[in-house]
Amino acid sequence: MTLLVTGGRILRPDHTVERADVRIDTDGDIDAIGDLERTERDQPLDAEGGLVTPGFVNAHGHAAMTLLRGYADDKPLDAWLQEDIWPTEAELGPEDIAAGARLAAVEMIRSGTTAFADMYFHVPELVDVIDEAGLRARVGHGVVTVGKDEAAAEADVQEALDIAAEYDGAADGRVRTAVMPHATHTVDTDSLERLVAGAQERGVPLHFHFNETESYLDPDGTGERPGAYADRLDLLGDSAWAAHGVHLTDEEIDRLADTGTAVVHCPASNMKLASGLAPVERLREAGVTVALGTDGAASNNDLDMFGEMRDAAMVGKLAADDASAVPASAVVEMATQAGADALGLPGGKIAEGEPADLAVVDLSGAHLTPEHDLVSHLAYAARGSDVRHTVCDGKVLLRDGELLTLDPATAKREAEERAREAVERAS
Ligand SMILES: CSC[C@H]1O[C@@H](n2cnc3c(O)ncnc32)[C@H](O)[C@@H]1O
Ligand SMILES: [Zn+2]
Question: What residues does substrate bind to (predicted)?
Fold first, then answer.
């Protein structure tokens, strides 16, 4: 059967809105857009009174950190990681990661996210959940070598490279991999060099936290800035994407632009951990692809990309001291097309020949009335709970608010139990 998204208005890649139906072929691609006659082969999906948008792309996060939501708030990054998060993560096993990731998938699908990037551990269990949920993702094993002996560091690097090779193309091609050193200051130089060479050999991209706080700014203790250091080690490049990018010199912004490295802005996490004001307007003006990410649910504390768009627009203006900076259209682009481009994944736009990764946003709420400007509503007024349907790769994951691939009650119960037990083990 083909799928026919009927009666809605669609958000075009140039951000114009037009009345149109969307037919999705059996391969999961958008086959036709326009005033389409329903045939007996079409299974309808009602978009009347809704806006059909590209599915949102959450370009940086740690899905299973849903288990640590609300566990340790109101601290800066280093204290938060060292005192609370890392000791508890040390207690998480593969089944915990599956439970946390399943809860994240419920939250993402319900709020219209169809693709995400994930840096964490126990990646095979995460991949199984992505397959089950029907989502699309770019995943990698996060490597940290500080505080580890040589053998443990070596094992971590090898695991990241093995995972990148083994799982690329899993879940019918919806899962792609990347090599993911945690950050330039938490992975030693030798390991970074091995990871870069391994990524190049395997033809997969690199992803890492970058210049998030002042602790990042002297990665190898020589005084060399992280931008120059990362460039010298070949971490930067047009298939790499860097999370946060808060504390950047003009020279580093130019370097990111020249190398084609994308940056994922994580406004809620940056504000909550008081990491700083990212120079989003300057990055965009320099020609850097800027995507949007929630980071983990423990530093956000949700995975709703509508909240992220609103935060990005608001804090972008504050950072630039300019109310016209980071406008609505920019954050919608960051949450869709730029995210897909940064991750090297298909999707991010509603157009013929593109994979059908989309969300239908119900416009009937009082908070979305009147309809002067639907791009403005997406950025400033809509919420994840306004999403009526979510479709990924042509498969309906959420229909009329009901999850079709996962059982939310079971996902919540399991995550609740596993989170409680992990915290008890850690304390
Ligand atoms: C080694 S897997 C990924 C690792 O990153 C940690 N993490 C979560 N949020 C942040 C952040 O904002 N900056 C740096 N590191 C972060 C997560 O807890 C995992 O340990
Ligand atoms: Zn992160």
Answer: 89, 182, 212, 295
